[in-house]
Design brief:
The protein is mostly helical and 307 residues long. It has eleven helices and six strands.
């Protein structure tokens, strides 16, 4: 905004800001921005490089401003909603019809093998009312820490957690699918140092899933990287939603209510305390912290082992 005011006072027709990185983000302004009458645009470093080269070679440089008309219904929002709801439905179906097959002994009596495992025998973490409230409190603390300590190393830490959790989730999903098709695959085991007995199937699948995650990290700025990121996230969510469970409608209502207050506070009320919206400033939402908690759940659960 300061640059825009200086440019406008010098009778500039507009202001073009070249970012020093390839990423571009929304330029936040205060209420005084209404006094700025010239257009202000930010472009990535690659675009700025082309413009500088054209100016240096005395070529013609022309900038066209394009403001698309916002649709009544944003297709991308509908697509995101479908992914979110689809993940929950898929996780529910998965736990009942896919993952449970791994625990069924084919040599047991059909009446026993066909029945689902009792809740007491499943490795399920029931979330209590206090746990739901504490989850939102810890998430808020995480936001504040990220707001005051924004740095590249912290972003890489989140990426590392996401890759480990996504790799584990993808491995578990792949093993469950393959085991359902061919039950004999999970019967072949070998003894590994540090890990103990591990199935041959997990030894084969895990490196492939890890390579998938590494490929996303290397190409995460590419236009097609969203598919790899979403696929890792969906596998992670499917695995976690089988571990964490809302036991009743009371806990679900408390968690949803707290999450609603969480979003409203950190987006609209936090500027009164921190002079800017914490949620917008760190560009992170509830899902980002959920990825971190998901990784910790997987880390302390027996499913993290390659057995």
């Amino acid at each position: 905004m300061e640059k825009a005011q200086v440019s406008q006072s010098g009778d500039a027709a507009g202001l073009l800001v070249i970012n020093d990185e390839e990423d571009i983000f929304e330029m936040m302004c205060s209420e005084n921005a209404v006094n700025i009458m010239i257009p202000v645009v930010m472009i990535p470093a690659s675009g700025g490089k082309q413009i500088k080269e054209s100016i240096a070679s005395k070529g013609k440089v022309e900038l066209l401003l394009y403001a698309p008309i916002s649709p009544i219904v944003d297709v991308s929002v509908v697509f995101l909603w479908m992914i979110a709801v689809g993940c929950v439905i898929l996780a529910s179906i998965w736990s009942e019809y896919i993952a449970c097959e791994q625990h069924c002994d084919p040599y047991q009596d059909s009446s026993i093998a066909g029945s689902a495992k009792d809740d007491s025998e499943k490795d399920v973490l029931d979330i209590s009312v206090m746990g739901a409230v504490c989850f939102i409190i810890v998430a808020s603390t995480f936001l504040v820490v990220l707001f005051f300590f924004r740095s590249s190393w912290f972003v890489w830490l989140l990426i590392m957690f996401f890759c480990i959790g996504g790799t584990q989730g993808m491995t578990a999903c792949a093993i469950a699918l393959i085991s359902r098709v061919s039950r004999n695959c999970r019967n072949h085991t070998v003894k590994l140092p540090l890990f103990g007995d591990a199935t041959v199937l997990s030894i084969v699948v895990f490196p492939l899933c890890l390579a998938f995650a590494i490929f996303w990290v290397v190409h995460r700025h590419a236009s097609y990287s969203w598919f790899f990121q979403d696929f890792l996230g969906i596998c992670l969510m499917i695995n976690v939603l089988q571990l964490a469970r809302l036991p009743n409608i009371k806990v679900a209502a408390v968690l949803l209510s707290c999450a609603f207050v969480y979003d409203i506070f950190w987006v609209f009320i936090s500027p009164l305390l921190f002079h800017e919206s914490v949620m917008v400033a760190v560009s992170v939402d509830f899902t980002s912290f959920f990825f971190l908690i998901s990784f910790l759940l997987l880390l302390f659960n027996y499913n993290f082992r390659l057995v």
